[in-house]
Amino acid sequence: MQNFYERYKSHILLKEIGVKGQRRIKTSRVLIVGAGGLGSPLALYLAAAGVGNIGIIDFDNVDVSNLQRQILYNDNDIGKSKVEVAKERIEKLNPEIKVCAYNEKLTNANALEIFKNYDIVADAADNFQTRYLVNDACALSGIPDVWASAYKFEGQVSVFDAKKGACYRCFHPVAPKPGSVPSCGESGVIGGVTGIIGSIQACEVLKITTGAGAPLIGRLLYFDALNTLTKEFKIAKDKSCSLCGENPSITELQDYDEFCQINNFAENEITPDELNIKLKNEKNIQIISVYEESEKQDLVFSDSLPVALNNIVFLKDKLNANVETIFVCKYGYKSIYAIRLLKEAGYKGKTYSLKGGTDKY
Ligand SMILES: [Zn+2]
Known about the structure:
CATH topology of the largest domain: Rossmann fold
Order of helices and strands: HHHEHEHEHEHEEHHHEEHEHEEEHE
Number of strands: 13
Largest sheet: 8 strands, mixed
Distance between the termini: 55 Å
Low-confidence stretches: none
CATH architecture of the largest domain: 3-Layer(aba) Sandwich
Radius of gyration: 22 Å
Mean pLDDT: 92
Structural class: alpha/beta
Strand order of the largest sheet: 3-2-1-4-5-6-7-8
Number of domains: 2
CATH superfamily of the largest domain: NAD(P)-binding Rossmann-like Domain
Bound molecules: zinc ion
CATH class of the largest domain: Alpha Beta
Shape: globular
Helix content: 25-40%
Oligomer: single chain
């Protein structure tokens, strides 16, 4: 017991936590969804704080481009499973805790089964399908979703606890169009922002666990590192929310790819192999590299025409509609969105989006 008092002295000294709060932390069970920029500080602080049972789910491997912000990993970890490295690292930090690594994708088939082992879920994912999935699975499981996102110089944090306040669907009832909101990997993010926002998530988890202070339920904290300012927004519970409203239509998990319209333009997709065959056999093909203006342009296809997403509609009159056009971008989402914008503008030519983007090419 000596070690308990010594190790967590700085928590025990806080009247809002004390011995009772620290014991609650010790028996708490927290699942972290996503072991990236937000998940790194989150996992480290929760482990250091003595959260007795930590789960981490992610199916990605460590990439060199992660090291700029994902402080769980170092150069020697490149290519290894993120959750396996994360587990080893935080178990070393605090051998008293139990860590469960889920090297898999969170899906509508496994979410409820995994969530039932936890009291709180911290959403540190970087895509909308997972956000809605975590929100819905938390509400259906009756546990809070400590949510955050980081983008460029900005971060947002909130606690979606459908029992006490708004859920993510009250805040965003409709998913944004695929590709319309780029991820950190596409648009960039300053490392410190993921550190700050992930650390706030860790504080929120510890506050909920111990009952200290006022968690961000019904409130959203916005942080702008470029101008160093914070803002707070109220998020009201929506009585007509399809998940947590008075007459909910969502009573089980959904198809989140469908909800987020990920597959709507799948008929336009072309795999890297199919594209290679096409490039070999047909001379007359136009390739458009779609990028966001703030994004660095790496032209994987040297003979492609780079076009910013917000200028895509101007291609309608410039492209030769009798020639097939391949749209490419880093992850294959913006290119789908570009085709959608162009079709909505009335373009009639044959279009394809490179599946998985240049990242998988
Ligand atoms: Zn709701």
